[in-house]
């Protein structure tokens, strides 16, 4: 299966359990890998033959910046669902880093992979 990547999408949102985290938006770094078949697009050079990664990025941006979730796990689950709305995407792997979440650590991250239901 071929892959489309959206790398290092730096966004801000309300995320976290603690009262201080619920007041101000925090940085999150999002990476997405989507599996799809790119052969038709490679031959035709037409957008209609591939997943529109710009449209997917815009949907992710809109969701994340307006979200008020507690867990980055929930954020990742929702982003994977956005990716899978495009029927051409067979699976989505989402990695989310939350910089500064732990003292002495550069970031905390989760990674999930979700596949299209057969």
Outline the structure in words:
With 118 residues, the protein is an alpha+beta fold. It has one domain: 2-Layer Sandwich (GTP Cyclohydrolase I, domain 2), CATH 3.30.1130.10. Helix content is 28%, strand content 38%. It has three helices and five strands. The chain has a five-stranded mixed sheet with strand order 3-1-2-4-5. The longest helix is centred in the middle third of the chain and has 14 residues. The chain is elongated, with a radius of gyration of 15 Å. 22% of the residues are buried. The model has no long low-confidence stretch (mean pLDDT 96).
Got a strand count? 5
Order of helices and strands: EEHHEHEE
Structural class: alpha+beta
User: Low-confidence runs (pLDDT<50, min 5 residues)?
Assistant: none
Order of strands across the main sheet: 3-1-2-4-5
Shape: elongated
Rounded to an integer, what's the Rg over CA atoms? 15 Å
The CATH class is Alpha Beta
CATH topology: the name is GTP Cyclohydrolase I, domain 2
Kindly report the average pLDDT value.
96
CATH architecture: 2-Layer Sandwich
CATH superfamily: GTP cyclohydrolase I, C-terminal domain/NADPH-dependent 7-cyano-7-deazaguanine reductase, N-terminal domain
Work out the helicity level: 25-40%
């Amino acid at each position: 299966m071929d892959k489309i990547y959206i790398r290092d999408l730096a966004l801000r949102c309300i995320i976290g359990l603690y009262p201080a985290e619920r007041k101000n938006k925090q940085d999150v770094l999002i990476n997405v890998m989507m599996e799809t078949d790119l052969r038709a697009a490679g031959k035709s050079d037409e957008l209609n033959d591939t997943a529109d990664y710009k449209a997917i990025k815009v949907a992710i941006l809109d969701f994340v910046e307006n979200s008020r979730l507690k867990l980055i796990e929930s954020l990742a689950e929702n982003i994977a669902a956005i990716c899978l709305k495009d029927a051409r995407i067979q699976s989505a792997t989402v990695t989310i880093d939350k910089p500064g979440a732990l003292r002495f650590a550069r970031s905390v991250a989760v990674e999930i992979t979700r596949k299209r239901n057969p």
